Fold:
Amino acid sequence: CQQNVADSEKIKGFLAQMGFSFTEDEEEADFILFNTCAVRGHAENRVFGNVGALKDLKRRHPSLIISLCGCMMEEKQASEHIKQKFPFVNLVFGTHVLHRFPELLWTALTASRRVFERGDEQEDARIVEGLPIHRDGTTRAWLTVMYGCDNFCSYCIVPYVRGRERSREPEAILDEFRSIVADGYKDITLLGQNVNSYGKKLERPINFSQLLRMLDAVDGDYRLRFMTSHPKDATHELIDTMAEGRHICHHLHLPVQAGSNRILKEMNRGYTREKYLALVEYARKKIPDLSLTTDIIVGFPGETYEEFRETVSLVREVGFTSLFTFIYSPREGTRAARLPDPVPYEEKARWLQELCAEQEKISAERCAKEVGKTYRVLVEKQNEKDGLLCGRTDGNVIVLFEGSKELIGNFAEVKITAARNWILRGELIQ
Structure:
């Protein structure tokens, strides 16, 4: 989750100001923190497993502070589970009190008690500006423009752990954006649970398209992206803004989740298959080189195989650049978790394999058409295994090619020479 990445950078900013340095060696660590995700059950199970593995380390290093934060810790049952089953954990705090992290850590260090803190209604409504940030890397940067969600999709726990929608003031966003550009970051992603809802509740309302135009006007050599964009709120104005922008990437992540109208209604998504396809048609007309990616949930409660096949047919009709696919995971407290779910997990797993096989064909066909074209690639790193440079196109497609590591962090012109499903191979144009 990119929002968790952005939150982690703020926590690292606090830690750096407090005099901490960072290490990957748990044996030398004085403080270990897990920033947790609550979107799927698998992520939560991994947290419990990883925390449990630290029990012996804590026994050998009693002064070690172990902490958990993030969305999962805003769930009362998860926080209580940590309190009861993992007595060696010192500090637990939720997303809404992140700005109080130094105070909470100080309490955990100086008081002879464990600290557990979750947000309340007053905390949920706050936006605290001016928090320190310790960004990871020097090429890509994350910029949160809003918090929370008001959509209440029937399967999603996010509104319960991230709270209602709150938008940052555009002036604060613009100031941070200018500093990111000045610091030399070349790929900047605007973040929000639903960026298309940005600005609705501000005292001086401004929509997301207007914010994009404001940021796009900032001079510099950079790319501007955003996520996540909800289809029910994606407008022609947004597409037009992307098409006309100087820096805005021709990449749209537009989660469809399912191809069946009945399932979309059960999910409370607020749009139909037909509306989604009409929006895609308009976007492709205005931005012919658009790279379109999406999220899909397989095996929503009550979904039949015939309804799943409607999702496959939509994927085939749209021709996505790539998919982010998940088997439905029940989240306690959501409406979908109370629905009958007769299809066994093993069957859902077979459906997922079928969907992925279809997308692999689409990706292979799409990538094959890229051979011979030249793209401006932002070089991000050098692979340790083969020494190849790794970068991304404007459409967020990975390209591998030979070149000097001095190119890392810069743009390079690369001609595509071969395709491997969703990864392209190329050669540097001198």
User: Anything to note?
Assistant: The mean pLDDT is 94. The CA atoms of residues 297 and 326 lie 5 Å apart.
